[in-house]
Structure formats: C-alpha cells, structure tokens
Design brief:
heterodimer; A: 506 residues; alpha/beta; Rossmann fold; 6-stranded mixed beta sheet; 17 helices; 25% strand; globular; B: 360 residues; mainly alpha; 2 domains; two-stranded antiparallel sheet
Chain lengths: 506, 360
Amino acid sequence: MSESSAPLVTMSGIDKIFFDKYANRGVDFELERGETHALLGENGAGKTTLMNVLAGIYNPDAGRIYIEGQEARFASPKDAIASGIGMVHQHFMLIPAFTVWENMILGMDSVPFVIDKRNVTAKITELSERYSLPVDPGAKVSTLSIGERQRVELLKMLYREAKVLILDEPTSVLTPRETLDFFSTLRRMTAAGHGIVLISHKIEEVLSIADRMTVLRRGERAATVKSGETRKETLVRMMMGHNPENLRRKRARFGQTVLSCENLSARGDRGAISLRGVSFDLKEGEILGVAGVAGNAQDELCETLAGLRSPDSGKIILRGENVAGMGPREFIERGVSYIPVDRTRTGLVPNMNMRENIALKKYWRKPAARGKFMLDWNFLDDLTRSLAEAYSIQTIPAESPVRALSGGNLQKLMLARELSDKPSVILAMHPVWGLDVGAAGFVRERMMEERGRGAGILFVSDDLDDLFEMSDRIMTIFEGRIMGIADNPSDFSRERIGLLMAGMAV
Amino acid sequence: MRVWRLEPRARTPAILGPLVAALSLAAALVIGGVLMAIMDVNPFAAYYEILRGSLGSWYGFSETVVKAIPITLSALACVLPFRAAVWNIGVEGQLVMGALASVAFVRYCPESGSVAMIAGMSLASAAAGGIWSAIPGFLRGKWGVNEIISTLMLNYVALCLMDFLLYGAWKDPMSMGFPMTAPFPPSARLWAFGGTRLHGGLILALVLPVAAWFVLRRSKWGFEIKVIGENVRAARYAGIDVTKNIVMAMFVSGVIAGLCGMSEIAGLHGRLSRGFSVGYGFTGVIVAWMSGLNVLALPFTAFLMGMLLVGGETLQVVMSLPLSSVQVIQGLMLFCVLGGEVFRDYRLRGPRAAGSKEAE
C-alpha cells in the first residue's frame, strides 16, 4: 500500500441528473484504506447511482472524483477497474455457460491471445485461499449456488486487483449463515487494505460490519456517521425523514379454508422432482409464512399454486374444487393472485407503460374488455390513474415505459394490479425484497389489510424478522419438503425455525 | 481524456424518431453517392434521375404506387410477427404460395364469375400463405424451432415448387418455352384504375395497415401479441397462450403475404411468371424496420422504396447503371436505419461531461 495520506476515494459535489431530476445532488463521499463504508438510503435515494458514477458506468453531470488524491475521469467501467475500482452488482454479471476461470478473465485487456489456463487457475486458487473464498475454478457457473456466484464476483474484482470494492446489496441473496461467512471475508479484505463500499437497506447488518455510514435521502447526503456513535432509530429517521409506524396487528379472525394442498409434487425446470409431497391448508384471513433458504422449491410451490407449473401428482383444492392441472388463467379467475419475486422479469413488462402493465391481469375480462375482442383503454386509463394515487406510485408520463420506475414503485404498481381484484388467495414471494424501509412498510401494511379483508396469504420469505412479524403460522420448507408447521406464536423460535430451514428435524 | 460515449436516454423526444429516420436515409444516400462517384457516375445526376423517373410524371408516379403496393403488404406481413418477437423472414415464400394458390383456383374453377373468382382466389391465396407461415409458427411455438431458419428455408421450397409447376404442369403451351402460366381470364383480374397499371391491390395496401393498426392498438389480441414480444415470461404469468398466439400471428402474417401474391398476379401481371416478385418479401423486412414497426408508416416507407425501384429502372435506361446499384442503396438504407436506432435510445455525450450535448 502506498504511504500517501490521501483517502482511497474522494467524491465531491457529485451531480447526476436523470429525467430532469437530480438522482444525486452535490454528494460528497469518502473511503479510507481498510474501511467498510456503508451507503444507506431508501430505494431511489441515489445510492446505486452514486456508485455507478464511481464505477465509471455513468458520467457525473458535475463534481470530481479523486483516487488516492489524483483526479480521475472514467470513460467506462474499464477505466475505473484500471484505477482499482470494482463493483459487484445486485444482479450478477456472470456468464452461466462459462466456467469460473473463464468468467474471471472475461473482458480483461491484459489476457494474452493464447490463454495460460494453469496460470489463471493458480492465481484464482491463491486468492480464494488468501481471502477464504472457496470456489472451484473449473466449475461451470450455472452449477454454482447464489452464494458461490457471489464469491466468484468478489474474486473477479480481486483478480483485477481492485483496491475499492463496491458491493450492491450483497447480503440480499444470502442465508444468515452465509452472511456471517461473507462478513468475515469482508473483514479479511479490509485488513489487507482494501476499501469496501456496502450498499444496503439492512440497518442491523450495516451496524455490525461498517466503520462509517453515509445516509442518502432523495439524492442528497443526509449525514455521514461513525458506526459506534449512532443508533438504529437515528439512522432510520435520517433515511426516511420521519419515524416509521409500527405495524398494527389486529387479532386474526380465520374463516374457512380457501386453499388446501394434498400431497402436491412438481418438477423443477431441469425436469427433476423438486416439490415433494407438500400438504397444508390456508384459511381466510390468515398469513401462512413459508420459511426456507432460497432455492428449496419455494418457486416451484408458488408457480404450481398459480397454475404456471403443472403438478406431477397431488391436489390443489380451491374452495372445494380441485384445480390441479388447470392453467394460470383459470387460477387467476378463481381469485389466486401471484406476486412473483422477479418483478421486472415475470410480474411486469418493463418496456410497457403503466396502463398496459395494469391491463396485464385484467384485459381479457370485464370491465377492461369491451365485447369479445376489444379493449377499453379509457377505462384502464382511469383505473391506472386512481390506482397510482391510491398506492402513491410516482407519476411518470402516461406513455413512458415503467422501467423508469424504482423498485419500490414497481412493487407498488404490481400490488396495485394484484390487490385491486380482491383476490381470495395471495401468493407473495419475498414481497419486500430489495425495497427500502418506506416501501417495505407500505407493502406489509397492505398485506395486513388484505388479511383483515379475509384473503388467505402465503408469504414466502427467507427473512426471519419479516416472517415473525407478519405470519400467523410459519411453515418451513427444505428441499421441497415441509419440515414442520408452527401453529402458535410460542413455537416461533429463531433457533427452531433456523434448524428446520437447514434441514434438521426438531 | 477525450472520449465520446453513449448514454441511455431517460426520455425520447417525440420528434427524434422521424428525425433519426430522415437522417439515416440521408446518410445512406450520401454513402451511396460516394459509391456512385467511385463508379464515375455523378451522384447528383443519378439521384435527380431517380426523382424524375419516379415522381416526374403521372406515369412514373403511378408506377411507384404499383411497386409500393406489394412492398406495403409484405412489410405488414412482417410487422405482426415482429411485434411478438417472432422473426418471419419467409414472407417471400408465403407470397409465392399465395400466388400459386390463386393460379390453382383459376385453373380448376375457370367457369366462376368475376366476384366468385376474386373471392375464391383471395380465400385460396390467404389460406395457402397462412398455412405456409403457420407451419414454422407452430414449430417455433410448440418446440422452439428457430423460425428465422425455418421461414428462410421454406422460401426456397416455395420458389422451387413454383419452378416445378411453371416449367411443368402449369406452363402455358403458347408461351414459347417461357416459364409462365396462361394469361388469366378477365374474370380473374382485379379492377384496374384508369389507363394505369394501378389495380385493386391498392385497396388492400391502404385498408389493411389501418385495420392492423386498429387490431394492434385496440384489441385484446393485439395486446397479447405485444406482451409476448416484450416479455414472454410475463405473458405466461398473465395466462396468455403463447404457442397459440405465435401460430396465430404467423398465420395472419402469411394470410397478408398470400393476398399480396394474389394481388400481384391477378392485379398487375395477369398471369404467374417466374420472377413476378422481385424479392418483395425481403424488401418488406427492410420497410418494416425502417417504419419502426409502425403499421401506419408502412405505406409511406413503401412508397419511398417504390421510388427507388422505379427510379432505378430509369437509371438503368438513362445512365446504364445496373439495377443492383439501387439494391445497394436499399441495403445501405437498412444498415443506416438500424445503426441510427442507437441514437433514438441513447445520446452521445462529449468529452466534457457537463451540460447535455445531444447529437442525432
């Protein structure tokens, strides 16, 4: 490490303008050697934008960047990487069909025409031992778990000799156990002199790992504080500008069973059985939490219950009618609403405007349809306007594609569409995933209202806090099997659920 | 560092689309001009001849419209599946199948009256084009067979089938060996307008794009097609039957292509001869893209292409340039339009990042 006393990174007065609005305005940011500096803020507060500027993905509209005291101008991410700045995005930038070592050297200018594979793998092995990031250089990325892929992304940056690592919501894909390992890796990196920028929503995690925190609010810097000198509540207030309300929980009034599964089995995308003989009941006015580490057939469960995947065997009984084998349209018309985790890939059409995205689940039936063939866009226009208001969705020009909206607004848009039909069953997969405090609170509140209205809600999450807060009962899923259903709040112990999630019978 | 770079546009100004299209065309003309200059042809004189030939007289104008008819219809046949992100490159073959079906109807029901004849030819050609197109549509929808390859290959099957019939069973004994059918009876001719070669196909070329606009914009089916094209996962999530809709889009595309083949031989040529379509099905792909898949823009873009074709004939006569020189310009246009699209979705920013310098 050089002896210079200048900070590793200094950003001063950064402006970035999108949509004639400031995504960042006059933001100052500093990162020292060996420091973990967290960036906190609600969705759309400008955290990722700021870091995209640092990583050379965007040109700032104003402001300067200094790397170790030297002014830097990045024309592309390549320039930023050459200056030692590497970013691991929320959505990984790996080619699944390539091996780990191939992904590692992908896009590097310094790779010779004839690749010395042994040299590359040796370097990967060395790095993965030094930072305890175990990964097999010869493995195909498509065979790796999410946690392993993240390790590959980190190694990729270390391989490029990045001094500054920008991590965008790195723990959102990890289990609690993996998160602990991940944090110890981060400590190893800072000990070696790397600087780490951690973009996150999770305040508690941030407090446990970060040295300093910078809070952004509406594109501007609200504060920079040291970790030991601040409390959780203070941070939340700085992020939101006001105190969040606590969820008001009414006593549950369960009604009849709306949905029951009997011995339901289904195959995964690769054709192997992944959902194995699941049985449970869901009642009106009940939130049934589904706890499990991502990838334990929660997707298959929800898709089967939404009619998107046809079950191999078993029954799905909706209000007394076995609907197993029917298509998604039949499920929708029987009041099953599915809120998928991948908003922009499944739940919404990013290139279409708001009205068209609202129409997605309504266009074929009254009142959105006029006659057998035609659509009533005037009706949909009015509906969209009133839903946007009711769900306080950011207003964009009527013809603008919704990809311009932030994650929180997209989720609200999807909820607005799904809940406006008053579904009797709601399959909600990670409905607050990736949302800021404000939007997440709104989503939870709306779920509670739906529960109060009498909808049966299947609430899939890997966040135990969320599950405990929301659920009337918690069902734990592991490798496609139900490990246990906790009926009473007294059974909701972290340890118990945690063990069940890990596949251990209790 | 002096670097120019592209950044995504937050919002696309409304005039940018037409402006980019116009500038792309201009760029194509400039590059074409340079090529002509290399061939020792004065590009200004050549472009003047194209304009004079295509618009300079009533005859030239009507000929341009005659060319624009099949181009509009072919382009329309491309747009529908393109909207669903299904790449039908087989319009040429579907057009040929439509033409063959109308000949078959004329041959086997020669006694029909004019109305029955035209109705019968229309039905036969629509069915033939539609089925020819629905086959790769079904393969794609059901098993994911790449429709670009299958539609492209089916073009050659259709063309060979036409050759087989034109050199064999359907050859006009009076044609002195030329590969063409006997002339159609008057009952099988579409109405002609005045003393020109304009024919009833013009009605199709004007009405069908408007009808397609209405369907795409206002109907449930148009919406389903659009959702499939933009996000097929979301389409399944909303319960849209993707396979069925892809087959339908391809079928309708083939129907339009088939009608186009019918209108060319029943309206214009009055018989089927080899080479009745000078690659209209492929020109349709270019025109569909140049129009930004906007069906209402198709007739205008097709008219522009018609100008090039008619003007190109003038070039052949007056400046003794080969017709392929015009096809070069056509190709350049597609390149420039596709390349120009970048500037619709992105903006070029100068090395001094401040301000918002925009370039078209």
